[in-house]
Amino acid sequence: MKTSRKIQQEIIAAFDDETNLDTASIGVSVYKHIVTLRGQVDSYSKKITAQQTVWHIQGVRALADELDVVLPNDGKMTDAVIAENILQTLDNLGGAVVRDLRLKVEQGQALLEGTVDNLTQKQKAVSAVWNLPYVKDIIDLITIKVELVNDQMPAVTAVNSRKMIQGPWFTNYGDEIKPPTRLQASFFLKIIKHFANVMSTL
């Protein structure tokens, strides 16, 4: 079993590998496999990144997150200004990514919905928004355009085969994922549209 010192060293090393984390402003202590984070970060995304990084370290059993999020301008930013900043950020990605995206902001939480051409565009949009300091959370309802081939969706290639790719019709660690049938794809898309409609009324 790992010692507390070993766990602490691995967490600090993992923080060093995260380019958007300032390790000098984050203190890490470990006692009986319980990790405590103290210090300050300048965005909610960095706070979440720190949490996720800790949980990737084997041997961690509990996390006490005491990180403070200190935003510019004393943290005063209206949802309208946050929305404006998000739209500007998305526009900078290029028209191919954002032409069919819609945005809703409420109490710092951003809801993104619409359609993009591929997974890369979806990841770029979500990542760009998440890195903005005033965004507290993201609800990602972005869908990817899919063209059916012979009544089936084309096979999907894993972006990183070391990570599990999960969905309503597959769970696979390999590079190739068996495609769903037209009926499965249609059913899943109906669920997404229904959920999007429900969220738009909130």
Can you describe this structure?
This protein is an alpha/beta fold and 202 residues long. The protein folds into two domains: 4-70, Histidine-containing Protein, Chain: A (2-Layer Sandwich); 79-200, Histidine-containing Protein, Chain: A. 37% of the residues lie in helices and 26% in strands. The chain is built from six helices and ten strands. It has helices at 4-17, 44-55, 79-91, 95-98, 119-130, 182-200, and strands at 26-31, 34-41, 62-69, 101-106, 109-116, 137-144, 156-157, 165-166, 171-172, 176-177. The strands form four sheets. A three-stranded mixed sheet has the order 1-2-3. A three-stranded mixed sheet has the order 4-5-6, with helices on both faces. It has a two-stranded antiparallel sheet with strand order 7-10. Mean pLDDT is 77; it is low at 156-178.
Brief overview, please?
By secondary structure, the protein is of the alpha/beta class. 37% of the residues lie in helices and 26% in strands. It folds into two domains: 4-70, Histidine-containing Protein, Chain: A (2-Layer Sandwich), CATH 3.30.1340; 79-200, Histidine-containing Protein, Chain: A (2-Layer Sandwich), CATH 3.30.1340.
Relevant terms:
Histidine-containing Protein, Chain: A; 37% helix; globular; 3-stranded mixed sheet; 2 domains; 202 residues; alpha/beta
Secondary-structure blueprint of this entry?
Blueprint: H1 4-17, E1 26-31, E2 34-41, H2 44-55, E3 62-69, H3 79-91, H4 95-98, E4 101-106, E5 109-116, H5 119-130, E6 137-144, E7 156-157, E8 165-166, E9 171-172, E10 176-177, H6 182-200
